[in-house]
Design brief:
With 406 residues, the protein is an alpha/beta fold. It is 26% helix and 18% strand. InterPro entries: DRMBL, RibonucZ/Hydroxyglut_hydro.
Length: 406
């Protein structure tokens, strides 16, 4: 759950993922993704009126985030005031003047965050420094070293501040299995169940509206089937090239159902979707709930440290699958130790009983952690620079007018 106030120390008049209170005095707004804890105030009348009051005040986001946002009828009045920023490019954004400051421009680069469809990080670069806001993110170890936005022509960029997702910046989540590892272990569980008979079906219970699409897509690809979701979701997914074609709104065309939030008692013989799907048939239902909180909570109560489990079965018939939408302690440490910012600030208070000061100190300790990928990058750049200098010297020495007589 985001605890970010919405503003950067470096750039006043910019508000990110918070659209109420004093942030309504800002003149440029950014939305990292479509989860409710990052959309506080977004649907409010005061925010809409603020956008309407100035001709050059906008809400900036990725293309996919705009699609998801406008699927919500309450958000459609915002469409006129939304601007899409291209991912991977330095977008020059105007921050209009207010009563307390002058107009200025800042370069904003959107970096895929891997949290849910459309989710991005924002890298701000301008006269007042370089700041990275991660929003919620889910990266594997080593991923930061592949991001071109962090690199300048001959070195890594010097970043003043990183505002980082610290949802799982706790010892119990030191080594959450990567998303790809969890999915690779989930696929055979689903496949084996479906292979038992045509009456064996799978119900995937998803607490959040978005964020499980990677799992759905992999299941559809590997098992050569579509996943059943509500009509409105199919309409949305069909607008996103990476997800189009993997979903159906017809419950009879799939034995994998992710069609409703779980609000009823678990059933091993009925489906949560429309009665037409039952067709007077007795089903054998495998209920799966992908999450991470439950696994880390179990780890907290355990005396051992290290790896989080991947699967667990509840006696009532609920199969829990570890599936994270946030980076683990180790993955957060990898990002911070690679970037080496001047300061690093948490944007989420972990669900544990820890206070802000403890989380802040933990993040600071990551700055002294050795990062192999960073060292490798610096060594490569240094070597290339030396070789480049030698080539110039050699080339210069071969010029005819500089040859000495022998």
């Amino acid at each position: 759950m985001s605890s970010f106030c919405g503003q950067l120390n470096e750039y006043k008049n910019i508000a990110i993922d918070r659209f109420d209170g004093k942030n309504l005095q800002c003149s440029a707004f950014f939305l990292s993704h479509c989860h409710s804890d990052h959309m506080v105030g977004l649907k409010s009348i005061p925010f809409l009126k603020h956008l309407q009051s100035s001709k050059d005040v906008y809400l900036y986001c990725s293309k996919v985030t705009k699609i998801l946002l406008l699927a919500d009828e309450e958000c459609r009045p915002l469409e006129k005031y939304m601007q899409i920023l291209e991912i991977g490019l330095a977008n020059l954004v105007k921050v209009p003047s207010t009563n307390h400051s002058e107009e200025y421009y800042v370069n904003v680069t959107l970096i895929p965050a891997g949290h849910c469809p459309g989710s991005v990080m924002f890298l701000f670069e301008g006269k007042d420094g370089t700041a990275l806001y991660t929003g919620d993110f889910c990266w594997e170890v080593g991923q930061a070293s592949k991001v071109l936005a962090f690199q300048s022509e001959k070195s890594l960029k010097k970043i003043d501040s990183v505002y980082v997702d610290t949802t799982f910046c706790i010892a119990e989540a030191y080594n959450i299995p990567s998303r790809s590892e969890c999915v690779d272990l989930t696929i055979p569980i689903v496949s084996d169940w479906l292979s038992l008979s045509s009456s064996h079906v799978v119900v995937i219970i998803c607490p959040a509206k978005y964020g499980y699409e990677y799992l759905f897509k992999k299941l559809a690809q590997q098992l050569d089937t579509k996943v059943h979701v509500p009509d409105w979701k199919v309409d949305i997914y069909d607008q996103i090239p990476d997800l189009a074609g993997y979903f159906t709104s017809d419950p009879l065309l799939s034995r994998i159902h992710a069609c409703k939030f779980y609000t009823q008692k678990l059933s091993r013989s009925t489906l949560p979707c429309s009665p037409t799907a039952h067709d007077s048939k007795q089903y054998q239902v495998l209920n799966i709930k992908p999450s991470t909180m439950w696994f880390t909570a179990q780890k907290k109560s355990s005396t051992s440290q290290g790896h989080v489990g991947v699967t667990a079965v509840n006696p009532k018939g609920l199969n829990r699958i570890c599936y994270t939408m946030h980076s683990s302690y180790r993955e957060i440490r990898d990002l911070i130790s690679f970037l080496q910012p001047k300061s690093v600030l948490p944007s989420v208070l972990p669900f544990s009983d820890e206070c802000w000061d403890i989380v802040q100190e933990r993040l600071k300790s990551f700055l002294s952690f050795p990062n192999k990928e960073r060292n490798k990058f610096i060594q490569t750049v240094t070597t290339n620079n030396v070789l480049g200098t030698l080539r110039k010297i050699k080339s210069s020495a071969l010029k005819p007018n500089q040859h000495h007589s022998v």
